[in-house]
Structure of UDP-glucose 6-dehydrogenase:
Amino acid sequence: MVKICCIGAGYVGGPTMAVIALKCPNIEVAVVDISVPRITAWNSDQLPIYEPGLDDVVKQCRGKNLFFSTDVEKHVREADIVFVSVNTPTKTRGLGAGKAADLTYWESAARMIADVSKSDKIVVEKSTVPVKTAEAIEKILTHNSKGINFQILSNPEFLAEGTAIEDLFKPDRVLIGGRETPGGQKAIQTLKDVYAHWVPEDCIITTNLWSAELSKLAANAFLAQRISSVNAMSALCEATGANVSQVSYAVGKDSRIGPKFLNASVGFGGSCFQKDILNLVYICECNGLPEVAEYWKQVIKINDYQKNRFVNRVVASMFNTVSNKKVAILGFAFKKDTGDTRETPAIDVCKGLLGDKARLSIYDPQVQEDQIQRDLSMNKFDWDHPLHLQPMSPTTKKLVSVTWDAYEATKDAHAVCILTEWDEFKTLDYQRIYENMQKPAFIFDGRNVVNVDKLREIGFIVYSIGKPLDAWLKDMPAVA
Ligand code: NAI
């Protein structure tokens, strides 16, 4: 029986390994992590991450050919294939701080593999890493080798949170990069055989190591670029009276462009887009390509601009101050169908409103209060560096409350900001919400989920990103 071990039981390691175990009953899969609470949760009925369909997959294989453990060394030692799916956050200190990927976790995993291994292994980069990381990993593994043969493969993950199980069941493609040597090709074939249990052969792409590593960074940069492109257009739509949904639809109908990922919003979030683009920018700079670096930097600049623009719009519309006004925040996760708040635009929007001393009442169906409090007290990039966590400042604590009900959050509020596109926000009883709010009652829809005309009929002053402004907003000072 082939044995697989995955180091890192996070948003990627957990679901990917659960699906491999489900689709390959003849393979034993162990997912290991240094975090005891995470492994305990994986072994309980309350999994550590919320992902539609995940519970079901885990239930079918856990205890049969899928195991979660903190005994990292044992499972690595026994495995034929070791996936490394640890976090690769942005560096917060030292050389490349604020841009380069922090490979501390990766390097320590690689050193541990070298130390404990007693047999040949295929080591698979599952984490998103800078191009050429495999070279460094190879050096760590081979310099410590006791005659053991390690083959390094790059097998970046393309799943999207919220649809992870669907994406893993039916991936657009599986990408495997390896050395162009006989040993490298054999390792590629071994991993291909795993995926071939359920992925059609023409969806499995094989490349050299550097192409695979770079393709993941490129894919995330292209995806984020589409969002920033449509968000840049949304600002122009508001200035001209065009409607961004109509523009996106018309543009997306061009088969060369396609309709996906063209929704204007308050900005992209999630653990990957920003960090991977910053990393791409850093790699370009290190390779003497400042113009290319500058080009990709703009994707992040527009994202920051969009979040600032939203906050400015809220404040400017409400007589240029939100001080001591209650603002309901509907949605805190970075997108619907996940409880993940890493780099969610809600953090920047809430911090912006808190900067003007708003009182925030926050509701998200999947995010717990302590998570929101942690997020709002953290410095940029610190979320993936647990040691830097600080308690919420007393002032922030006083201004923020978290509720478990949208109606409670909006009661007596001066304004509602919708920051995540949860389906339930489309069907709220907005008449009831309006009646219980202060007047004039404002709705700022950062995800284009509400029916603007209906809400205006009820009496709300509505702002929806990239949509024609109503008379009230037009009379307010220009927002930049
Ligand atoms: P995560 O933070 O949810 O999980 C990483 C896990 O690795 C943590 O539980 C941590 O305790 C563990 N870990 C760190 N060092 C370890 C060590 N030395 N030994 C054992 N366990 C260790 O991160 P996530 O979101 O799963 O991301 C992992 C990688 O996958 C990152 O490089 C990310 O960029 C990439 N990725 C993430 C996607 C996502 O949607 N979250 C999608 C595609 C790629």
Q: What stands out?
A: Residues 7-13, 32-35, 38, 72, 85-88, 105, 108-109, 127-128, 157, 159, 161, 271-272 surround NAI (CB under 6 Å). The chain has two domains: 3-199, 241-464. The longest strand covers residues 2-7. The domain at 3-199 is CATH 3.40.50.720 (Rossmann fold).
